[in-house]
Design a protein that fits this description.
Layout (H helix, E strand, L loop, with lengths): L9 E8 L3 H12 L4 E4 L8 H4 L20 H6 L9 H14 L6 E2 L4 E7 L4 E6 L4 E9 L21 E4 L14 E5 L3 H11 L4 E6 L5 E3 L7 H9 L1 H10 L8 H5 L14 H14 L15 H18 L3 H7 L12 E3 L2 H4 L5 E5 L5 E4 L3 E4 L3 E3 L2 E4 L8 H4 L2 E3 L6 H4 L18 E3 L12 H22 L3 E4 L1 H16 L29 H13 L5 E4 L2
The structure holds flavin-adenine dinucleotide and NADP nicotinamide-adenine-dinucleotide phosphate.
Flavin-adenine dinucleotide binds next to α1, α2 and α15.
Length: 548
């Protein structure tokens, strides 16, 4: 690590933790309000997710024109995305460009991890410390630490015995990794692996995929962006952004407007004929992308409706994958489609038709242990030159849980969240005044195009802070009763959907010992925004503004 300048007893209006898209936008917004702010960031550059996840094939699953900031019209008009779904390097370049264009970097301290955030009740300020010895205090703290920023390693015996090259999708080396001529193994078949597998397969001599649970995936139908299409799109950027924010597609945008989609939306699969439904699914499949399920409104509510979509995808897998046994193993049957984030792929299922790719179905032939040279299965040993782990994240609470956060009376956030995260609207916790979370648990966050959810929260937090200033209030806080009400509401909404049946990281199910609580708010981005706007209009109902 290079020698770095530290903050000593520094004082700011606000400290932001994390310099991904959330932290950068928050910093810009606070500066516009005339406040002083500092970001602390572990990485040596901005970008968050797009800084860390450099595995082959990494790209966004929301379309680039929608997965981008909407708060600066010149930026929106001038930035040129080259593909429908941008690659990680292009998104990282965008993040760096934004940090330079808006001169954000001077207020960011890189290469340090925030270790402690303690509320000093007497001063009504937060004391913040980092692993590099920074000490600073601020009136407000904003956690922009990311929902998917803490990698999870698989709980497999012998992991550290392996003597070959080991890579983790979420902590990929910055230099190029060349698999040419190698026998490569991948553990995991989530979104990361599904993007990486087709790319690695084109390079490796042999690629073996170790799959425990198959996942639903829809084709991206990626393509270079056509200049005329982009020019037309940019003419109505405000209209598109409005659709992202208020529409029914979880912030992904309104297909009808953006891509000329003509299939009518229906409330229920039952409301339209089987032919119409199949034609609609086929059209969406050909069109590509994560909005496949929003063809009808009840696909994530009604088991029967959902099963129709699942069957459609099963049939696509069977049509694509030539080996019937491999095709069956790739068909997800243990969870409703969409109850885990639907994957968006480029040639994922097609890749299994390659001679140099094989699938190990761990449900039939489990891993016994990792050895010095490969993977010992119940039946057979697979020799590997390189092992790739695409085993996910300690999602939503992981980054917050790794910081010693103490609120009023020295209450630790970890203790407060022992039985699962508790927030009011995913934005604040009772007992932790003036501390906000961007895309915190209890907000739509990971169930959406996260750019849209990040912007909603940055807007809310900024206005909340401005409101406190207008009122002469020093403290913004939420009550325990409001928090309890919200937690119940989040659960009620989740219970009305099929999400809980996913058994996924949405529920903490991938992390040993983590409470099984459905963490995101499943109402959808549009309704959540309307609620946020109503709360703001009603003088931030549910939030208390207290003068010290
Ligand atoms: P992050 O980008 O995760 O940034 C958080 C930052 O906080 C990180 O840089 C981290 O180093 C830093 N940090 C954390 N803890 C500390 C600490 N204690 N001290 C200092 N710094 C800290 N969402 C979509 O909507 N569409 C997509 O296509 C999409 N693709 C994704 C692909 C991958 C591979 C992954 C993992 C996630 C993807 N996501 C996607 C979700 C993605 O995380 C969000 O879209 C978005 O980038 C999150 O931005 P953020 O700023 O909130 O968090
Ligand atoms: P993930 O979806 O949690 O997938 C992790 C994979 O690792 C699963 O297949 C899991 O199998 C497997 N696994 C974990 N432990 C294992 C073990 N001990 N043995 C065998 N297999 C094991 O993680 P991810 O792929 O990194 O994606 C996480 C989220 O990041 C996504 O849902 C998405 O929100 C986001 N993301 C988006 C994109 C994009 O398209 N733009 C790309 C990457 C990530 P089980 O399911 O059986 O546990």
């Amino acid at each position: 690590m290079s020698e770095i300048e530290t903050d000593q007893n520094a004082s700011f209006d606000a400290i932001i933790v994390g310099a991904g898209f959330a932290g950068m936008h928050m910093l810009h917004q606070l500066r516009q309000m005339g406040l002083t702010a500092r970001i602390y960031e572990t990485a040596d550059n901005v970008g968050g997710t797009w800084y860390w996840n450099r595995y082959p094939g990494a790209r966004c699953d929301a379309e680039s024109v929608a997965y981008s900031y909407s708060w600066d019209e010149d930026l929106e008009q001038e930035w040129e995305w080259t593909e429908r779904y941008s690659t990680q390097p292009e998104i990282l370049r965008y993040a760096i460009h934004v940090s330079e264009r808006f001169d954000l970097r001077k207020d960011i301290r890189f290469e340090r991890r925030v270790t402690a955030i303690h509320y000093n009740e007497g001063a009504n300020r937060w004391d913040v410390a980092t692993d590099q010895g920074d000490s600073a205090s601020a009136h407000y703290v904003i956690m922009a630490t990311g929902c998917l920023s803490v990698p999870a390693l698989p709980d497999i015996a012998g992991l550290d015995d392996y003597k070959g090259n080991r890579y983790q999708a979420s902590q990929w080396p910055h230099e190029e990794v060349d698999f040419t001529g190698q026998h490569v193994g991948v553990i995991g078949t989530g979104s990361s692996a599904i993007q990486a597998i087709p790319v690695m397969a084109r390079q490796a001599a042999q690629l073996t995929v170790f799959q425990r649970t198959p996942n639903f995936s829809v084709p991206a139908q990626n393509r270079p962006l056509d200049d005329d299409w982009v020019a037309g799109f940019k003419k109505n950027y405000r209209g598109h952004r409005h659709n992202q924010k208020y529409g029914l597609n979880s912030g992904f945008g309104d297909l009808k407007v953006e891509l000329g989609e003509t299939v009518p939306l229906a409330d229920a699969a039952n409301d339209i004929s089987e032919e119409e439904l199949l034609a609609g699914m086929e059209a969406r499949w050909q069109q590509g992308g994560a909005t496949f399920l929003s063809l009808v409104m009840d696909s994530m509510i009604d088991d029967d409706s959902n099963a129709l979509f699942a069957n459609f995808i099963h049939n696509k897998i069977r049509e694509t994958v030539k080996d019937p046994e491999t095709a069956e193993a790739l068909c997800p049957t243990t969870h409703p489609v969409g109850s885990r984030r639907i994957c968006v792929d480029i040639d994922y299922f097609e890749t299994y038709n390659r001679d140099n790719v094989s699938l190990v179905n761990l449900l039939k032939n489990p891993i016994e242990r990792i050895t010095e040279t490969g993977i010992q299965l119940a039946d057979g040993h697979v020799e590997l030159d390189s092992l790739v782990l695409a085993t996910g994240f300690d999602a939503m609470t992981g980054a917050l849980a790794r910081i010693d956060i103490q609120g009023e009376g020295g209450e630790k956030l970890l203790d407060k969240w022992e039985a699962g995260p508790r927030t009011y609207m995913g934005l604040m916790m009772s007992g932790f005044p003036n501390l906000f979370t961007i895309t915190g648990p209890g907000s739509p966050s990971v169930l959406s195009n996260m750019m849209v959810s990040i912007e909603m929260h940055v807007e809310f937090i900024s206005k909340c802070i401005a409101n406190a200033a207008d009122k002469g209030a020093d403290k913004v806080q939420v009550t325990k009763s409001n928090e309890d009400w919200w937690v119940n509401h989040v659960n009620e909404v989740a219970n009305a959907t099929l999400y809980r049946k996913g058994g996924s990281w949405y529920l903490g199910a991938n992390i040993k010992g983590k409470p099984r609580v459905f963490m995101p708010y499943a109402s959808g981005v549009g309704p959540y925004r309307e609620l946020c706007e109503k709360v703001m209009d009603q003088d931030f109902r549910g939030f208390e503004f207290v003068a010290a």
